Amino acid sequence: MTTRVKPWRGVMVATALPLREDLSVDFDAYAEHCRWLVAGGCDGVVPNGSLGEYQTLTPEERAKVVETAVAAIGGDRVMPGIAAYGAGEARRWAEQARDAGCRAVMLLPPNAYRADERIVVEHYREVAKAGVPVVAYNNPLDTKVDLTPALLARLHAEGLIVAVKEFTGDVRRAYEIAELAPELDLLVGSDDVLLELALAGAVGWVAGYPNALPESSVALYKAALAGDLTTALPLYRALHPLLRWDSKTVFVQAIKLSMDLAGRKGGPCRPPRLPLVAEEEALVRAATEKALAEGLR
């Protein structure tokens, strides 16, 4: 297998985790899903993110998810999420990923409380000791900790991060990040601003909806990065009724439903997540069925 020089670039799918009806993890289905995504043109996977329901996994399950993905598609295509309440625990997950063969990890700031800048920097310093490249994940909507462009530039200048998954949806940040830290890779973090951030200089996409529609998603990403609006705009408009669910609270349930409709195994979610309410399910179902009927895959 050819080693990817920067394994955090390209379409890295934040994988949903297939669960059986008894809510146990179907590791065989997960391995097959990882292989299917790569066969569909995706560059790799990001297990143990929020979409992978990592908060509900036992330590044994969480480790096995990483090991399963690496065995299926190779470590240079696997970038695990290593979020944890403490920096020490996050570092241990980074070490586990490194030892499993992964060549990059993705890390939220401390998310148990509203940490200040001094604490955030020390958090990334501790995890960096694992010796594996770290992609920061900025999601202040959920964590209440904002990795501002200036703070990202500081983390990058210290050699603590190589890229950022930017989830705020504020496209203006792309230009400020490029000015303050021109060597820091920008990754699209929310599906529904893919085109805007790609045109602003993103070099990767930590993606949700390719779990259901990888080929069309990859085609959109490539056209957007190339500035080919003739190809990108119609695809973006066709996919956007689904892509916007990636930024909603029920994104896991929505994406898993779309997977089920597309012939993949999404399955149920573990509590405290509940099934979609009837109105939400109808909207996701209609948008997915329309996309499939239009030939999106």
Task: Write a brief caption for the model.
With 297 residues, the protein is an alpha/beta fold. Helices cover 46% and strands 9% of the residues. The relative contact order is 0.13.
Q: What do these coordinates show?
A:
With 297 residues, the protein is α/β, with parallel strands linked by helices. It has helices spanning 27-39, 59-73, 87-100, 117-128, 140-143, 149-157, 172-180, 194-199, 214-225, 229-243, 251-261, 278-293; strands spanning 10-14, 44-46, 105-107, 134-138, 163-166, 185-188, 204-207. The chain has a seven-stranded parallel β-sheet. The mean pLDDT is 96.
Which keywords apply here?
single chain, 297 residues, alpha/beta, 7-stranded parallel β-sheet, 7 strands
Please state the average pLDDT score: 96
End-to-end distance: 26 Å
Strand content: 5-15%
Poorly predicted runs of 5 or more residues:
none
| Category by helix and strand content | alpha/beta
Structure annotation, total helices: 12
Give a count of the beta strands, DSSP E runs of length 2 or more. Answer: 7
Q: Which sequence of SSEs, written as H and E, runs from N to C?
A: EHEHHEHEHHEHEHEHHHH
Shape verdict = globular
Report on the biggest sheet.
7 strands, parallel
Overall helicity: 40-55%
The Cα radius of gyration reads 18 Å
Strand numbers in spatial order across the main sheet: 2-1-7-6-5-4-3
